[in-house]
Write a structure and sequence with these properties.
By secondary structure, the protein is α+β, with helices and mostly antiparallel strands. The chain is built from 8 helices and 14 strands. Strand 9 (298-340) and strand 10 form a beta hairpin.
């Protein structure tokens, strides 16, 4: 026996027991997979209480094959169906002249009703997946969904347009029989399983509202909703730029630390050098200019000069500028969530948000006008004696006898700043030579041929002697 035959047998049994809704659900399941199954269409015609749907089912049986036993039975049933009584047409109403005025609110469209979509549920008895929300009982095993059922809405779920299904979806949540636990549609006044009255039961399937990111797409428990991200800054991609800059900064800091991190290497001292300098200063008479004459200065001349400027307000000038502003021009309705109706169907949750438009307007304003007024002060020209560096005496060598240059100074000269530098020549294991500046005490303590521990950079260049 095929699955279709098994489902049709179950549907016939349910029909005999008066369980019409379960029988129709089983028949629909067969027709979903085998739309040309004559036996299913014939059983649908015998089961449905809807005359229009019964006629449609018979016509479908005949269209498939009128020569089979099922086809002949359908033809006989259609011929026995009485035609609707003819009704006389009412007298024509007198013509009414057209009103030239447009109807009120002619340009305003009726608000769109929230879309209804059919959900799915999984049978926890036989494991069937994706059972339609309209099916109270599992078409595979016949078990009725209970209060533990979890409805979910697949991403590809289409909008329900059938009037009967829409009426079913909006009838209310399913109620649960207090005696046998059977789930029943909201319009049923008695339990489909045991016949208990709806008034004796007060349990219902849960009605829930979800935001768009929380809508269950499968029967699995939803993942915890993550904390909302902070709103983006007005600068748009500023956050991304900052993140990239931070990564680059960390990279270069790490690279610099690796390059500068000292290494230890043994090297030999192969030579020395030294250099000492003394700057020679001479007292000279120079001419300078300033707002004051310093001590020791001798005035030569003076004059009035511009010391600075004051910004003085002289008036206002009327100017025009363009100003952009956000103006609310209305509201728009958008889908902000889904509501589980507790009966296998979901309905869109609609929210309103303001709609803004950028408008530019012209405005006048008063621009202050300033004039730069010079500040006059007395400027002095004077002469004064200053020590000036005229030459530098320098002496050096590659021996261990460092000394200062010999000076022959005139009466108007003196020794100025002194400098000294001490160098050792180092050689590594690859016979590469480096010069390293050290202190005088270290230079005097080291000996040629001595092997010392040297801190180097990443390229082997000496940094210091340990």
């Amino acid at each position: 026996m095929s699955n279709a035959d098994m489902f049709l047998d179950m549907a016939r049994t349910a029909h005999v027991k008066g369980q019409t809704e379960q029988a129709l659900s089983l028949i629909d399941r067969v027709l979903y997979t085998e739309p040309n199954n004559q036996a299913a269409w014939l059983l649908l015609a015998e089961t449905t209480p809807d005359p229009a749907r019964r006629t449609q089912a018979y016509e479908r049986v005949v269209a498939i094959n009128p020569q089979t036993a099922a086809g002949k039975q359908a033809v006989a049933a259609l011929q026995a169906t009485p035609a609707p009584p003819a009704t006389s047409a009412p007298p024509a109403a007198p013509a009414v002249p057209a009103d030239p005025r447009p109807p009120a609110n002619a340009d305003s469209a009726a608000p769109k009703q929230p879309a209804v979509r059919e959900g799915r549920w999984d049978c926890r008895y036989c494991g069937s997946k994706g059972v339609r929300g309209r099916d109270i009982a599992c078409p595979a095993c016949g078990h009725v969904r209970d209060k533990e059922v979890r409805f979910y809405l697949p991403e590809e779920a289409d909008e329900v347009l059938d009037a009967a299904l829409l009426q079913r979806a909006k009838a209310g949540v399913d109620w649960l029989c207090a005696f046998c636990g059977t789930s029943n549609v909201a319009t049923a006044e008695q339990c489909r399983q045991c016949g208990a009255s709806k008034a004796e039961s007060n349990q219902h399937q849960a009605e829930k509202t979800y935001t768009l990111d929380q809508v269950p797409r499968s029967a699995k428990a939803p993942k915890p909703t993550p904390a909302p991200a902070p709103p983006p800054s007005k600068s748009g991609g500023c956050g991304s730029v900052v993140a990239i800059a931070a990564v680059l900064l960390l990279f270069f800091v790490g690279l610099g630390a690796w390059l500068l991190w000292p290494r230890s290497s043994e090297m030999a001292i192969t030579g020395y050098s030294w250099e000492r300098t003394i700057a020679i200063e001479e007292l000279q008479t120079v001419t300078e200019e300033g707002w004051e004459i310093p001590a020791g200065g001798r005035r030569l001349s003076e004059r009035q000069a511009v010391y600075g400027y004051n910004q003085v307000l002289t008036g206002y000038e009327t100017r025009t500028r363009n100003v952009s502003e956000q103006v609310q021009v209305g509201t728009e309705t958008y889908t902000c969530g889904q509501r589980d109706l507790g009966n296998g169907f979901f309905e869109e949750v609609q929210c309103d948000r303001p709609v803004y438009e950028t408008r530019t307007r012209s405005e006048t304003y008063e621009e202050p006008i300033y004039q730069a007024v010079p500040i006059m002060r007395t400027s002095y020209t004077y002469e004064i004696d200053r020590w000036r560096v005229v030459t530098t005496r320098r002496v050096g060598g590659s021996n261990r006898r460092a000394e200062w240059p010999t000076l022959n100074l005139r009466d108007n000269q003196r020794a100025g700043t002194r400098t000294e530098q001490y160098i050792v020549v180092l050689e590594d294991g690859n016979r590469r030579r480096y010069e390293l500046e050290v202190s005088q005490a270290q230079w005097e303590a080291l000996r040629e041929g001595q092997r010392v521990e040297v801190q180097t950079d990443a390229f082997g260049k000496p940094i210091s002697i340990e």
